């Protein structure tokens, strides 16, 4: 009986590790600005499955969402949860596409686009942001950065895929790609 329990535990660990290998947070830093905003900087390491790589090469654009949630101070986090109906407090979309005529990859954030020669270069830029202001001015007390905490994650937005791919994604682990929630580390503003 002990051997069966050990084998099951190892399988569970292997599944968790395999899921975590797709997207890993490499950096999640934040700094409280003088006007009470939170300035967030992130970097992720992302590896696409073979199915996602093939779809990308065939012209399917992949949209990833960078999500932020404030977890402390609790009263402000609770208010933001109610205001946003339990959605992340801030999110940013990264659209990854392949341009077959130029053999280049493009990442689009809003109206800003940047091109990369290789998929590895594009994947390095995916989810990487510097000084992203995630809260409105005055949302936090700029004198107490130690009381602020939050978390971030990067996730493939399946709802942005073409409808036939959405159906494939629902039944396949190959199409589900997400990082774990990662706690942000607060920088000292002084």
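Sequence proposed for the structure above (190 residues):
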């Amino acid at each position: 009986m002990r051997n069966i329990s050990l084998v099951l535990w190892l399988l569970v660990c292997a599944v968790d590790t395999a899921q975590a290998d797709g997207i890993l947070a490499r950096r999640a830093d934040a700094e409280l600005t003088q006007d009470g905003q939170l300035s967030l900087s992130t970097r992720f390491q992302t590896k696409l499955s073979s199915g996602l790589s093939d779809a990308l090469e065939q012209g399917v654009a992949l949209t990833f969402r960078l999500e932020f949630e404030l977890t402390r101070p609790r009263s402000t986090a609770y208010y933001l949860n109610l205001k946003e109906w339990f959605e992340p407090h801030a999110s940013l979309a990264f659209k990854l596409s392949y341009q077959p005529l130029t053999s280049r990859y493009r990442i689009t954030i809003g109206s800003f686009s940047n091109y990369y020669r290789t998929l590895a270069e594009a994947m390095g830029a995916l989810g990487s942001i510097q000084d992203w202001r995630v809260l409105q001015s005055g949302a936090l007390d700029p004198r107490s950065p130690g009381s602020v905490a939050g978390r971030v994650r990067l996730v493939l937005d399946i709802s942005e895929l073409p409808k036939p791919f959405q159906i494939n994604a629902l039944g396949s682990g190959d199409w589900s790609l997400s990082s774990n929630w990662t706690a942000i580390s607060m920088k000292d503003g002084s």
